[in-house]
Design a protein that fits this description.
alpha+beta; Jelly Rolls; Arc Repressor Mutant, subunit A; 6-stranded antiparallel sheet
Length: 297
């Protein structure tokens, strides 16, 4: 087992995220292994082969693989350098909340991933890398949890079809959903310069964070994470227009990692660099006229 290493990158009641590296040389079929959990695996580099019975499956960065707890597999490496992967072990609670329409038949305690390898969607590829970035940079827990939830929902939807039936069931339910979305907005605005987690918000609102994450996206057309980023960017625009000069301090005050993170988010949202926007404001406000206009009549 000296060729393999595995370490936990993140753990919550949503899922456990692990980094897995195998540097086994290219050779024939290896020994039999047993999956320790119901895992979703994303290959970041390299490739490996999996054999179940007489069926051979190749795993590389274009695919998503599913492993069933307690099931045995044999592996082989068709290329040199082995493989580096991200392993996500979703909790039964998350799967039950997300796919409650089939929970009794598929997501019980003995739930298993009887799913063949799937082609990763472009969105899943981006979310996977965004998730790793949030963990690597010690991002606010809200960013990590929501990115993880989005990635799992996207991947599981590919594997088992759409999630549970539409959440709206009657006027009362619809009103409650709307109220929860609006209360979430209030909480985010009150915590604009802090870093609330999805768990904290859901606890205050007395609901499941999985339910709240889906509900908010469906009600508002945007995830809680993206909504919170927009609030902070709006605050950045206001403070820059009011004369803020130190973009590094501004970024840290508003909960961004650093100057570059603020700049990246600012460009994505407004299609202009914050420094360019600041100069634009300065140019407009610095103009003087030889004769000031007289608005009196």
């Amino acid at each position: 087992m000296g060729f393999q290493s595995r370490k936990i990158l993140f753990s919550s009641d949503i899922a456990i995220i692990s980094d897995f590296c195998c540097r086994h040389p290219r050779d024939g079929v290896g020994y039999e292994e047993e999956s320790e959990g119901n895992n979703i695996l994303f290959v970041r580099s390299g490739a490996f082969g999996r054999i179940i019975g007489k069926k051979r499956e190749i795993a590389d960065s274009a695919n998503v693989l599913f492993f069933t707890k307690g099931h045995s597999y044999r592996f082989f490496h068709p290329v040199d350098a082995g493989d580096t992967c991200t392993i996500i072990t979703p909790s039964v609670e998350f799967l039950s909340e997300t796919f409650d329409g089939i929970v009794h038949s598929r997501f019980s305690q003995d739930f298993s991933f009887h799913v063949p390898p799937l082609l990763a969607s472009p969105r899943a590829v981006l979310l996977h890398n965004e998730l790793l970035a949030t963990i690597r940079h010690c991002a606010p827990l809200l960013s990590v949890e929501e990115t993880l939830t989005e990635l799992l929902a996207d991947t599981c939807r590919m594997a088992w079809g759409r999630a549970s039936a539409p959440l709206v069931q009657g006027k009362t339910r619809a009103n409650r959903r709307h109220e929860l979305a609006e209360e979430t907005k209030i909480l985010l605005n009150r915590r604009i310069e802090s870093r609330p987690s999805l768990s904290e918000i859901a606890h205050v609102l007395n609901c499941s964070k999985f339910y709240l994450s889906r509900l908010f996206a469906e009600e508002c057309g945007i995830s809680i994470r993206r909504y919170f980023i927009r609030l902070r960017l709006q605050a950045a625009v206001q403070r820059i227009s009011e004369g803020a000069k130190d973009l590094t301090n501004l970024a840290l005050d508003l909960g961004f990692y650093d100057h570059s993170h603020l700049t990246k988010m600012f460009i994505r949202e407004f299609h202009v660099q914050p420094s360019v926007f600041r100069n634009r404001v300065l140019n407009k406000t610095a103009k003087t006229y030889k004769r000031a206009p007289n608005f009196q009549r």
